[in-house]
């Protein structure tokens, strides 16, 4: 098994109709990371588009993946790519939307619950463990009594869109720092200070 290769999965739903949804912020982060690697996603044999590269000169190898399945079927492509590239769950990072933290906030963790996130639940089931990394991109809670599922399937609001590029940029930085510096250092840098 490769200990130098990381699989970074940006969660979301396929197609242009979902591209601007809160639920697709993970894929927005992957698009930015792909730009930093100066590469393009190509279709893989495992229901995903992928890009392989290195973080910096001689840095860790990464496989960026955007599953082309719907969110609740994300586990198959993620586990298939992990098997194909010989990547253990402790080198898998899921980048996803998180309603339980405020918009414009990033938190990182290893393992734990899925918090009702169907994409994470499917990844945990497919990998056979919850012990993979998560870069949680805060999209905030739905207003009033709006259903959470409806909220995450809506585009970001006008005010949010002004800050969204900075949030996506910070989340991409968090992924890179997690890989190159470890979880604790990334948490210390990106978690909000109390």
From TrEMBL:
Report which superkingdom the organism of origin falls in.
Bacteria
Kind of enzyme, top EC level?
A: hydrolase
Q: Give the EC number(s) under which this enzyme is classified.
A: 3.1.1.29
Q: Which coarse location class describes where this protein primarily resides?
A: cytoplasm
Pull one GO CC term from this UniProt entry: cytoplasm
Where tRNA binds, per the record, is at: 18, 70, 72, 118
Its subcellular locations are: Cytoplasm
Please write the reaction equations for the catalytic activity of this protein.
an N-acyl-L-alpha-aminoacyl-tRNA + H2O = an N-acyl-L-amino acid + a tRNA + H(+)
Keyword flag RNA-binding: yes
Which sites are catalytic?
23 (proton acceptor)
The terms under GO molecular function for this entry are:
peptidyl-tRNA hydrolase activity; tRNA binding
What is one GO biological process annotated to this record? Answer: rescue of stalled ribosome
Provide the alphabetized UniProt keywords: Cytoplasm, Hydrolase, RNA-binding, tRNA-binding
What is the annotated role of this protein in its UniProt record? Answer: Hydrolyzes ribosome-free peptidyl-tRNAs (with 1 or more amino acids incorporated), which drop off the ribosome during protein synthesis, or as a result of ribosome stalling.
Q: Which family does it belong to?
A: Belongs to the PTH family.
Q: Which HAMAP family match?
A: Pept_tRNA_hydro_bact (MF_00083)
Record text on subunit structure and interactions: Monomer.
What protein name is recorded for this chain?
Peptidyl-tRNA hydrolase
Organism listed in the record:
Arthrobacter bussei
| Gene (UniProt) | pth
């Amino acid at each position: 098994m490769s200990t130098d290769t990381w699989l970074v999965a940006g969660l979301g739903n396929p197609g242009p109709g979902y591209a601007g949804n809160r639920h697709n912020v993970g894929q927005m982060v992957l698009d930015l990371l792909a730009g930093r690697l100066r590469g393009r996603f190509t279709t893989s044999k495992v229901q995903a588009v992928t890009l392989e590269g290195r973080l910096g000169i001689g840095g860790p190898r990464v496989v960026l993946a955007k599953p082309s399945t719907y969110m609740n079927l994300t586990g198959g492509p993620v586990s298939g790519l992990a098997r194909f590239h010989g990547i253990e769950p402790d080198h898998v990072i899921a980048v996803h939307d998180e309603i339980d933290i405020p918009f414009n906030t990033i938190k990182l963790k290893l393992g734990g619950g899925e918090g009702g996130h169907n994409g994470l639940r499917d990844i945990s089931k497919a990998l056979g463990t919850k012990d993979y990394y998560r870069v949680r991109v805060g999209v905030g809670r739905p207003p009033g009594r709006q259903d959470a599922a409806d909220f995450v399937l809506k585009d970001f609001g006008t005010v949010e869109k002004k800050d969204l590029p900075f949030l996506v940029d910070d989340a991409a930085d968090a992924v890179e720092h997690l890989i190159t510096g470890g979880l604790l250092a990334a948490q210390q840098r990106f978690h909000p200070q109390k």
